[in-house]
Design goal:
The complex is a heterodimer of chains A (616) and B (117).
Chain A lengths: L3 H66 L2 H8 L9 H8 L13 E8 L4 E4 L11 H4 L8 E6 L6 E10 L5 E10 L1 H7 L9 E6 L23 H9 L4 E5 L5 E9 L4 E8 H52 L13 H71 L9 H32 L7 E4 H13 L8 E4 L6 E4 L1 H18 L6 E8 L3 E8 L6 H4 L11 H6 L6 H11 L3 E7 L3 E9 L8
Parallel strand pairs in A: 11-13
Antiparallel strand pairs in A: 1-2, 1-5, 3-4, 4-5, 6-9, 7-8, 8-9, 10-12, 13-14, 14-16, 15-16
Chain B lengths: L1 E5 L3 H13 L3 E5 L2 H10 L4 E5 L7 H10 L6 E5 L5 H9 L4 E4 L4 H11 L1
Parallel strand pairs in B: 1-2, 1-3, 3-4, 4-5
Classes of the chains: A alpha+beta (616), B alpha/beta (117).
Chain lengths: 616, 117
């Protein structure tokens, strides 16, 4: 079984973590896309604009030299027609850039300036020692052709990257008479390409048509012209002359996001790159902070939820504890107040209930006490009664011993002498009365034993006709004294399986009752038996006093006598009918009566056929 | 036959002794338990008819002492009160030969004494 707290905790954890991570990941992916789009667009645009700027600058620069090369004074100067240096010092200053007009034309990095004739002798060089000597191809590193030539190498003297530009000089007949050769620094371009945004790994650089790195690397020194940049955008430019934007591995084999612009006119490719890791850093930060935030929020909301559910569950636990105590009858407990309104209401309701139970218990405890007291009193009385009847039986029986003994001795031939007929009759009557008395005492003991369940029943086959005759014969002597008319009206040949001795006991009691209650000389008693569905219904009918209706219900109770005056008039123990009822009940039958005051009484009893023929 | 009658009721012992004597037995009578016990300690009877309910020293006291002293007598208990189960067990333990209810039929008593012999 899972507890409420566990369930609530699990559901809360799933809900909180689920919702937080959903929010985090959705925002992460949206932010990532937006941020990257912006950054990439920026990189592409900057690459484009810088390329244009750089192209413009270089174009202007080269045009300056082109313009110088077509100066007629220069032609004269090469031909030897004039020995006056063709350019004014002002022009040279501009070329050197010492008097910069504006930032873009700051040519302070003009390293060498040479005028060469068609036989490749140096006519003029800013390096004076070369003048008048044939050119050294190691220094000039240039192919002298009919077309202007642009390429990029390290400067021989200063060993810094430089732009080499050579322009043929034509005379008026368009014959080549010499060359103007300049070498200028590339640092100026670096100013243009400098990175104005705060990225640690952002880099602009140029690659020439031989895939060599022209501008210095931002990350490592002395890589110019030694490092081959064989990257996707470089290849794309060289092969298809198309710009490229996207992710790739740069010359350091590091993954970058970059944009390229092809400056094919200048045999250059401009590249703008930022390390992928740096581009994604803010997004990763975003992700990291989002996760941390979500963990914190999860923790806080989980703690709060746990705290509240724990409080509820604790209250419920208290309810369970107290309920357990209540179920073991500890009603002194009280539900404590909780801060949760519903539970507090519940606690209040239950406390009232406990209070009600307590009060009821107190009352029922009092009742129980009273009942127990009464019960013990009744038991005491019952015990006294039992002791009394046992004692009475003993005390009554003891004097009977010599009486019966002497009567027996008198009646026995030749023991105490022979009696005359009158004496014989007297002793017989004496003996009969004593036997009646003994029977009375026996009845008392019998009722007691029946009450204790000490009597055994023996089921036999009873021939009803014969059985009723026996009853008639055995009870006839009772009728003599009051001159009662005694009738057996039985007319059946049925048999019954039951205990004959017990049924005789019932008859004996009922007949004795009738004898007691009929009047002398006019008395009439009838006994009868007839078959019913269940067994045999017997009755004993008399024309005695009758029994008032209101007394009939009590009749079968032990020691019950209708009233004391009758008891005085007619003796008896009041045990007879209760013995009858007990026997009839035990034989699975019923007993009842019909009676009219001053007309007489009929006692009926029906005994069920015990066909199993067993002893019960 | 030598018969001892122990009963606190004098009329009962009188009646029984006259009957048994008429039936050619010799009877010794004791009307209290202690005397009955001392008689039984000194003589072996053919039969002892012993009452249970006697004042001061009852039938069970007599039987208990006999049991303690390991005296064997042929005892018939004669009682008016019905016996409880516990009492019946006790009588069995004291090796009582027979229990008869008062008022006893004299023929029945005579028959019991004869069959015990």
């Amino acid at each position: 079984m899972v507890s409420l707290l566990q369930q609530a905790s699990i559901i809360l954890i799933i809900l909180v973590i689920g919702s937080m991570s959903t929010i985090v990941f959705i925002s992460y992916f949206i932010m990532k896309d937006i941020t990257l789009e912006i950054l990439e667009e920026q990189i592409r645009l900057r690459a484009q604009s810088n390329a244009k700027y750089f192209a413009l600058f270089l174009e202007l620069r080269l045009q300056q030299f082109d313009l110088l090369a077509s100066n007629p004074k220069l032609i004269d100067y090469i031909k030897g027609d004039s020995h006056i240096f063709p350019f004014s010092s002002q022009e040279m200053t501009i070329l050197k850039g010492s008097a910069s007009i504006e930032h873009a034309y700051n040519f302070d990095t003009l390293y060498e300036f040479r005028i060469i004739d068609k036989d490749l002798n140096v006519v003029y060089s800013t390096k004076n020692e070369e003048t008048g000597h044939p050119i050294d191809i190691n220094i000039i590193k240039t192919d002298f052709t009919n077309f202007s030539h642009l390429h990029y190498e390290l400067d021989y003297y200063s060993n810094v990257p430089a732009i080499y530009y050579t322009v043929p000089i034509h005379d008026s007949n368009l014959e080549i008479i010499g060359y103007l050769s300049v070498i200028f620094g590339i640092e100026t371009t670096e100013t243009i390409l400098a990175d104005p945004i705060e990225f640690n790994t952002a880099e602009f650089y140029l690659v020439d048509s031989n895939k060599r790195l022209v501008t210095p690397s931002r990350f490592e020194g002395n890589l110019q012209f030694t490092t081959i940049v064989d990257t996707i955008p470089v290849r794309k430019c060289l092969e298809e002359n198309l710009p490229y934007t996207g992710y790739y591995e740069d010359y350091r084999n590091i993954r970058v996001y970059g944009a390229s612009e092809c400056l094919s006119k200048f045999n250059l490719i401009l590249l703008h790159e930022i390390d992928k890791s740096e581009i994604e850093a803010p997004i990763n930060f975003l992700l990291m902070y989002s996760i941390i935030a979500s963990i914190i929020i999860s923790f806080i909301s989980f703690s709060l939820a746990y705290f509240f559910s724990h409080r509820i569950v604790n209250s419920i636990k208290q309810f369970v504890d107290i309920s357990n105590k209540l179920s073991t009858g500890q009603y002194q407990v009280q539900f404590p107040n909780t801060k949760i309104k519903e539970l507090s209401d519940l606690a209040h309701a239950i406390n009232q209930m406990i209070h009600a139970i307590k009060q009821r218990d107190v009352k029922s405890e009092e009742h129980k006490k009273i009942i127990l007291e009464q019960l013990s009193r009744i038991q005491e009385v019952d015990a006294q009664k039992s002791n009394f009847s046992a004692m009475m039986a003993h005390e009554l029986k003891t004097p009977l011993v010599p009486i019966t003994g002497y009567a027996e001795m008198l009646l026995e031939d030749n023991l105490l002498g022979t009696l005359n007929p009158a004496q014989q009759d007297a002793v017989e009557k004496l003996y009969g009365s004593v036997k009646n008395l003994e029977a009375l005492i026996h009845k008392m003991l019998y009722a007691q034993r029946l009450d204790l369940g000490n009597i055994k029943y023996n089921i036999e086959k009873i021939d009803i006709s014969k059985f009723m005759q026996e009853i008639y014969d055995e009870n006839s002597f009772l009728m003599k004294e009051k001159m009662i008319k005694f009738v057996n009206s039985t007319n059946t040949t049925t048999v019954l399986y039951s205990d004959p001795i017990m049924i005789k006991e019932v008859f004996s009691n009922l007949i004795q009752n009738s004898v007691d209650f009929v009047h002398e000389n006019t008395g009439y008693i009838e006994i009868n038996a007839h078959a019913t569905e269940k067994g045999i219904q017997f009755f004993v009918k008399d024309n005695g006093n009758g029994i008032p209706k209101e007394k009939q219900g009590q009749l079968f109770k032990k020691f019950y006598q209708i009233d004391t005056s009758i008891r005085r008039k007619h003796g008896g123990t009041g045990l007879g009918l209760s013995i009858c009822k007990k026997i009839v009940d035990d034989l699975d039958g019923k007993i009842w009566l019909e009676s009219d005051l001053n007309k007489g009484t009929v006692f009926f009893f029906e005994i069920t056929n015990n066909t199993h023929n067993t002893t019960s | 036959m030598n018969i001892l009658l122990v009963d606190d009721n004098v009329k009962i012992t009188e009646m029984l002794s006259s009957y048994l004597t008429l039936k050619s037995n010799s009877c010794i009578v004791s009307n209290d338990g202690r005397t009955g016990l001392s008689l039984m300690e000194n003589k072996q009877f053919d039969a002892v008819v012993l009452d249970i309910a006697m004042p001061n020293f009852c039938g069970f006291d007599v039987l208990e002492k006999l049991n303690e002293k390991k005296i064997e007598q042929n005892i018939i208990v004669l009682t008016a009160a019905p016996l409880t189960n516990k009492e019946t067990e006790l009588l069995k333990a004291y090796r009582v030969k027979q229990v008869l209810q008062k008022p006893v039929n004299l023929n029945t008593l005579m028959h019991s004494i004869c069959t015990m012999m």
